[in-house]
Amino acid sequence: MNWAGRKVLVTGSRGFVGQHLKRHLERVGADVVELQRPAQDLTQPETLKGCCDGVYAVIHAAGSAHVNHINAEQVKAVNVSGTANILAQARQSGVKKFVLVSSILADPAYDTPRSSYGQSKADAEALVIEACRAAATGSATAMSAAIARPANVYGPGMRGNLLTLLRLIQKRRLPPLPRLKSRLSLVGVDDLCLALVAMAATTPSLDNTARPSTDVPIYPVTDGQPYRLKEIELGIRQACRQEIPKWSVPVPVCYVSALLAEVLGRLLPWKNVPGLRTWRTMTRDQPVDDSITRRELSYNPRSNFYDALPSIIAHQQASDGRHSPSDATQRK
């Protein structure tokens, strides 16, 4: 579609995915609108009045990111109440398309035992589905929606477990991981953005005709490659020009370490500590099937984690340099 002159509201435009998404939308000619923080707050509905006026599509990328031992009340306020609030504004202003950036963890099959983060994303999805069904009842031009369920996202500026793994290897604080057979899926941030733009461009009349008009399509998003954690570790070590260890930590030792980290993470004020949930993720075979996304959106991912590593490391090193104490002292 021709994006020229069309306004697209991107929530979370200052976040990891949001910054890249804004760049992709501007490249195709869209007029990107952002929430003006802190004046406009997703958790404060009175501050959002009029934010969707004249907007063609909303891509809701804002959310409380997944971390271990996350504050359940905070994540519910942002991911669930925040979604409800921006949905209300979108419907009131006659927005044509609403795209929710959810997570593969919204699917319980990839989030066992259930986390507050995964549940919040599932609850947000339910709100979008219900809003579209209610709107479709009385209007031929009702707002349509799509839900993206990305796997773990990598790219320059990434956060979470992948960044933690990278930093530990860079500091030579990570022993050689065990050789597990379990597979996982990832997605590059640029591929995710291409998929999100495609979801926003798909009008109700072009949506899959085999699907009832009141249904909201859910699209898993990956880069199409199955990864193993040991291969990721070795890829990072090679990118960091480190010698490849000739041994690996035995599986039982790795489990005990994760258990200890879990205990310490609960006792000490540490953030994003890899504990038992990380261990379960490491050992559970959970590749994601994104065939529906490829088929309906003509989605064809272009990147893989290993090719993206040089740019990820360069961005991370530059970011660390900008925030180092020595740099701060020199600027004064």
UniProtKB/TrEMBL annotation:
Pfam families: Epimerase. Signal peptide: none annotated. Residues 8-202 form the NAD-dependent epimerase/dehydratase domain. InterPro entries: Epimerase_deHydtase, Lipid_A_modif_metabolic_enz, NAD(P)-bd_dom_sf. This is Epimerase. It comes from Pseudohongiella nitratireducens.
